[in-house]
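user: At home tonight, take the chain set out below, taking as long as you need, and be ready to discuss the fold:
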Amino acid sequence: MPGGDAVRAGLLRIGAFRSEPGHEAAVGRVQTWTRERFELPEHAAVMVTELVCRRPGCPPLETVVAFWEADNQRRHFKVLKPLVDVVADDLPPVWLRGALCAEPSDDYACCC
């Protein structure tokens, strides 16, 4: 790169380019379950990623799911297990939709 600068991947990029067997299929499953659970249109953006958690007491890997509502309101939630282990019952119930960390806040640093 010009000037010798290297492009570095941040924490959100961990797992973004994984090629282990089953990873891509797991992403697709979680996207489908999220669209179904929250009644999102088929073309709605649903981002699924696996992150390393470095906080004390966290599981080593967690799955983060983000989606956008029709009014561009972002919602997201975490599943405290690796992506390939996530099952449909791990997703929050639809009645929690409005509480899914619409806007991150330092008040909720534990869970958003």
Summary: The chain has one domain: 2-108.
